[in-house]
Structures are given as C-alpha cells and as structure tokens.
Amino acid sequence: MSFLTLVFKNLLRRPTRSLLTTTGIALGIAAVVALSSIAWGFQRSWEQAYTARGTDLVITKVTSRSPLPAPFSESLKADLLKLPHVQSVSGLLSDMISVEDAPTVLVFGWERNSFLWGHLKLVTGRWPSDDAEKSVVIGAVAAEMLKKSVGDTLHIEEDDFRVCGIFDSTALVENGTVIMALRQMQRVMESEGKVNFFNLRLAAGTTDAEVEGLRQTIKNRYPGFNAFTGGEVAQNNTGIQAAKAMSWATSLIALVVGAVGVMNTMLMSVFERTHEIGILLAIGWRRSRIVRMIIYESTVLSFLGGIGGIALGFAAVRLLEATPWIRGKIEGEVSLLLFALALGIALGLGILGGLYPAYRGSRLHPSEALRQE
Amino acid sequence: MKPVLGTLARQLLAGVAIWSAVSAFAGGDPPTAGELIAKVVAARQTIGYRVRARLVRTTTATGQRETMQLLIKGRRDGEASKVLYQILWPAALAGQTLVIEKIAGRTSRIWLFTPPDKTADLTEAQAGEPFFGSDLSVEDLAEEFWSWPRQEIVGEETVGRNLCQVVDSHPDAGTKTGYLLVRTWIAADLSLPLRIEKFGKDGKFSKRITAEKITKQTNHRWTAANFIVEPADGRTRTALEGSHADRDLEIPAADFTIEKVKEGLRPKP
Amino acid sequence: MGEQPTGGGAPEIFIEARDLTRQFDEGRIQALGGVSFTIRTGEFVAVIGPSGSGKTTLLQILGALDVPTSGEIRFRGQSLRAQRDLSRFRARTIGFIFQSFHLLPTLTALENVQVPMFEMAWPSSERRRRATELLEAVGLGARLNHRPAKLSGGERQRVAVARSLANEPQLLLADEPTGNLDSASAQRIMELLGDLYQRRGMSLIVVTHNPAVAACAGRTLQMLDGRIVADTVNPGGTP
What we know:
The complex is a heterotrimer of chains A (373), B (269) and C (239).
Chain A: H1 3-12, H2 15-53, E1 57-61, E2 72-73, H3 76-81, E3 86-97, E4 105-110, E5 121-125, E6 135-139, H4 140-146, E7 153-156, E8 159-168, E9 178-181, H5 182-188, E10 194-195, E11 197-202, H6 208-221, E12 225-228, H7 230-236, H8 238-272, H9 274-282, H10 287-322, H11 336-362, H12 366-371
Helix pairs in contact in A: 1-10, 2-7, 2-8, 2-10, 2-11, 8-10, 8-11, 10-11
Chain B: H1 7-26, H2 33-44, E1 48-59, E2 65-77, E3 80-89, E4 97-103, E5 106-114, E6 118-121, H3 124-127, H4 138-142, E7 150-159, E8 162-170, E9 179-187, E10 192-200, E11 205-216, E12 222-231, E13 236-247, H5 258-263
Antiparallel strand pairs in B: 1-2, 1-13, 2-3, 3-4, 4-5, 5-6, 7-8, 8-9, 9-10, 10-11, 11-12, 12-13
Chain C: E1 13-24, E2 29-40, E3 44-48, H1 55-62, E4 70-75, E5 78-79, H2 86-93, E6 94-97, H3 109-114, H4 124-137, H5 153-164, E7 171-175, H6 183-199, E8 203-208, H7 211-214, E9 219-224, E10 227-233
Parallel strand pairs in C: 3-8, 3-9, 6-7, 7-8
Antiparallel strand pairs in C: 1-2, 1-4, 4-5, 9-10
C-alpha cells in the first residue's frame, strides 16, 4: 500500500461528501473554463480579423469616448505609403448603423482594390463591381439576422442598396457585417474623402524592432494618430475588456466558493478524525505526515474536481457556441493553455483549501486525542 | 496696551466670517420648478441637430414588432424652432414627414407630408393621434408642457441611481392639450428628465415615457439615447432608439420647407 | 522470588524515571506526584491501579506521548526532554497497543500493519513483506486482506499487536489490552504478548486494573493517587 492509496481510502470513507465536494470544485472550474474560453475566443476573433486580412498595423485617430474613431482625411495614405517597410495601405470607413429591423450592424466601406477582400470567401453572388454601384455584400450571419438573400434590397440610412453577394470570413466577427465600396460608405456617412482606419501591410521579413520603430515614427509625425497591431486593437476594445473582466470576476467568485467548500469538507474531516489522528501520532507518525495526508486528500479532491470541471467546461463552451447570441460570431478557445491553467487552479484550490485544516490537524496532541475516548 | 478683542474672540469671529462666506457660495436654497425646467431646456439648446433613430412598436402579447427607421432634424432661430421627422424605411412608408413648428415654446404649426405630394396641417384633435402608428402622440413630440404656466415641485424620488425632483406641469384653461397633468422626474445634476408620466383629461394615468442609455457627452452634457413609451393599457410598447446624434449643426432653414422635404426622397447622386 | 539473572552482568537499564510529576489545568489536577523507578531491557512490567491512580498518565509519559511537568525520564541514558523530535523517537522505539484496538476501518489487516511503516525508509514491497511476516507471527496469515469489520475482537487485537511491532520497537506499551475481549481471547493475547516480547528482546509494559492480567508479568508496580505504592516481583509471572 502506498501513501497515496491510504489517502484515497480515506476519501472513500465518506463517498457522498467527497463526491459533493468534488462536484462543487468541478462546477467552479467549469465556470472558469467556459467563461475564459468564450472571453479569449472573443478576443481572438477580433485579432483574427486582422490576421485574416493580412493587416500588420492599424492606423487610426485616438478617440476617448466613441466606440469607433471619427473619420479623418484619406490624404494621409500617400504619406503612409512612403514610410519604410510599408507595402500597401488600405483605407476603410466603418460605423455601427441601425439597419431596417436590426438594432445595430457594423457596416464597412472598403477600398475596392485592396488586400482587405482577399481572405473573404464568396458563398453566393458576386463582389461589388464598381464604386458607383449601390450594392453590398453581407456576411453569412448578417444574412440570417437581416433575413436577406442575393438580389434583395437593404435600406441603409437614406438609400436602398442591393445585396449582390453573401460571403464567409475566416474572421468570425466579420460574418455579421455589411460591406460596400468605400466611396459608397463615404456617401452614406456624408464623409466624402474620409476614412476612420488605415490597414497597413508591411514587407515580408520586417522585424519586430522595425515595426516598433515604425509605430513610433507614426505617433511622432502625425500627432493624434496611433498605430496598433491587430492584437492590440482587440485588447483595447472595451467590449473585450468588459468580457474578460466579467469572466475573471465570475471565475474568482466560483473559485472562492470552491476553496471554501474544500476547506469546509477538510475541516469536518479533520474534526471527525481527531481520535484517529491521535492514534496515528501515537503509533509514530510525524506531524508533517499528518499535514501531508490532509493536504494530499484536499488536493486529490480538487484534482478530480478539476478534471471533471474541465470536461464540463468544454462541454458548456460547445453549448454556449450554439446559442443565438454567439453562434457563428465567437468560437470558444479550447487550448492546452486553458487546460493547464484550469488544472493548476484546481490544484491550487486543493492546496489552499487544505492548509488551514492541515494546520489544525497537526496541532492535535496525541494524548489529547486518545483521552477523548 | 491690550487689544480690544482677545485672541480667542478674534479667531472665533474669523471662523464665523469664513463659514458664512462658504455657505453663501455653496448656494443653500433648493431650485424652484421654474429654475429646474429652465436648466433642462437650456441644456438642450442647440442651433441645429440631426438624429438617426429606430422606432419600434411591440405588441406585448404576441411579441410582434413594427419597425421604422427615422431621420430627425431640428433647427432653432431665436425663439422659433422647427423639428422634422422623416420615415426612411420601410419602403412603403418612406418619405412620410412630420414637421412641428414652435414659437416661444408653443406650437405654431404642425404639418404632415405624405408622398407623392399630399400635405396637410394637423388640427388640435389630430395632434392627439399616434405619431406614425406608435404609442407616442404628435403632442408628445411637441413637448409643450415645458412652457405651461403652472409648474410646481411636488417631491423627490430616486430613479435608477439619480435623485430626481418631481415636477408637475398643469395646463391653463386656454391651452390645447389632451392631458390634465404632466409629471416629470428631473435629475437636477444631469439637467435631464428621466421619466415623464402623463395623465388624461379624466385624471387617469395615460402613459409613461422612460429615458434609457444615459451617457455623458464630450462637452459634459448628459443625454438619453433611448425612450421607452408604455401606455396605460399595457397592450403595446414603443421604443425610440437613437443611433446617431449630431448637435450644433448648421441645418439650412430650407430643409424644413415642403419643396426640400419632397426632394429629400430622391436618391442621392 | 525473582532474581536478577547472574553471569554476564545484569541487563542494562532501559528506562529510568526520577520524580516524575504531571499537573494539568494549571496545577489544579495532580495526576502524578513524584514517581521514580527503573526498568531493564527485557522486563515485563505490569502497572496496576484503580482509575484515577495516574497509570494512564504514566503510560503516556512512558510512551513519549506526553512530557512530565517536572522530573526526569531517560531511555538508555537519553533524556526524553532532550529529544528534538518526539514522533521520530516514538516511531522507532515504541509500539502501542490500545484497549479499543484503534485500527483504521477502511484498511485491510495487511494495510493496517503497514501504517506505522511510512516513517521508516522501506520501499512498499519491503513494507508488505514485513507486514505479512508479522501477521503470520500473530497467527493471522489467512486473514491478510480482511477489514477490521470482518474480524473478531481477538483477531483485531492481534492485528494491533502485529502493528505495534511494525517498526521493530524496543518497548511495547499496552493500555488495557484485554479490556474489550472475552476471557478466552484475553488469555490468548497475553500469551502472545508474553511470547513475542521475549523472542524479540523488547521490554513490555502493560497498564491494567485487572489483577489477572497483572499476574502475567514478572513485576508489578502498584499505583494510587499518582504515586507508586508498591513495586513487587511476581514469582508466577514472566520476568
């Protein structure tokens, strides 16, 4: 019999209690896994938009309040093209607009001959053919939400547009958007000659240091403007920050509850076994072994809860992905990192939850415990 | 030679003097109804604005919704003001435009344009009719009650997280209105009405209008982006949701003429 | 009358106790009021007395479960107080047998006997081998994988005896070992103990209030009110 066997047998003496504690941990870990997965997936979906497009840097005007930056003149493009390492520059104009029956839709105006379109896959129909045509392509999710097919009319602001195509994007977040030629968007927003983002593609082999240098140059030369990498734009997105904060807060609560549950179980277990612990001390066990036994017990409980919780959490993610709010827009992140993080948290819970009970257990005096009888 | 006032007495006097000065600056007296309303009205003042909004009327029982996309424009010329409400979508209703003209806070003229070329002035009775089929009446949009003669603060209540003064506005005998009483909850520190309850001529509760999505704009002004209208019978519910609002714009006076209104329908080049 | 064995010198002194006192509750309870004795290697001593006589307290001090309030107790010349790690000392020196057996209920007999062995550095195969041997020595070779619930009272105490021998102790301490057994089992246990301690060269101290049990030992310490009132040799007992 190994020490670990003894630990397991101790836990099996109270099967219901052990099961309940493990379940409690599992639920807490499942919450951590599910929420983190969605929040990270949310962030990744935004980052994906930029990697999918092949955008290395995003230039925009720094704004404090509005969710989308105010439009600025297109003329900056010529200057940007002259910067070192810059291969191509694409301007876009975007806005959140209430369209027909939908509360808000992200509407893009993209320069027609730009690298931005490259990663989109046309499901049906065709792309807008020229700048004068009042047509739009809509993402697959947008098509479902707005109930439009190719050939239908989509009324945006004061104009009727024709849906000429439906696309699918590897960047999930784009699937809920409406895209038209930049010139058309400028007309709709009465911002002729303006964009609110420039997407830059840099020459292959540009080092990180050079990218950083480029960013500084842009910040210094064009005050009020900033250059972000795709990941940073995602990070700065207040929606993403809110999602992550919420997921952390909820996870923290779940974990505190889990730790308290473990501690409670272990304390009960220690108090029930004061006599037995006295015996163990009497027959020669050192206090450190008592401590180890208790912490092993709490850690085994948490570990098993952690495994169960991870499985439950990933199942919950799949379920959440099927709900209407999330479907097609966010893919939960299922990664080894998350797995390891969740397991680590479970183990940490076990150790933390067992510390105080182990301390109490080790404080027992063998003769006191024997005298209880 | 000993000073006339001992040191302690002098310190006491100085303290009293400072205290009085501070109190005076802090402005102890609570505002009157008139002052509150003046604040609200002043906060809204702008030479011109343009708002894009969505009007949704929901039938409570079935959940069925009727949606409209609206363009709202306003302009102020001294004491005179004009507001225009134009339907952009759906196509069947697109182009219908309601224009409310006011002078010194009182309605001077309300007219409705229905494409292709029908224009009609609205009578008093018609002002009580629903605005574009919603639970708001045209009179509600005109918001004349701010200028009614009798205004009084009847209490204080917290709405959401804001402490509001409750102001009752009563029309006088000559006023043309469908209401006996309009009660407004005004958040004094936001200079914004958060809730309005209207009571019909029979004294019974008619509808409630609640402001939602309250945010602070860049110039420290508070605005509400959405308005929820709940009529007394509870069978329907209307939401007016603003998606874009630009203020302090130079909107040409011509935009409010019938010619321009007709023209506004034609697709832009 | 028992005599000290002659030739080759008297067996060495194993335990030396001098003026042991033990007070509880800040001096309000005086469990031991000055106890002194010596015990030699290989002795079988019974400690007898009514309840409240202090014999249990003495047992706990002898077992290094407790430390005297004043006085000195030495094991082979080494003071108990000087021990840095009482548990380690206990683990390697002393084996306990309790009135209520105190076996761990979810473990088999074989596993129970191995419990004290964790403190020794033996690998698990070695532990298992030793435990098997000990259980065979107490006559339970056929009951290795039984849980305490499936064993009779006498069998359980035998497992406890095997456990007490797990770490090859020098001293066996038994607290009313037959208290919960019927007379037949009680006799068997005392015979077993008498046999084992001699063969393994240990000292055996049994605390009891039962004169029949005390009679098994070669020497009896009688206690009353926290003191030793008599220290007699039993001619009929095992020395």
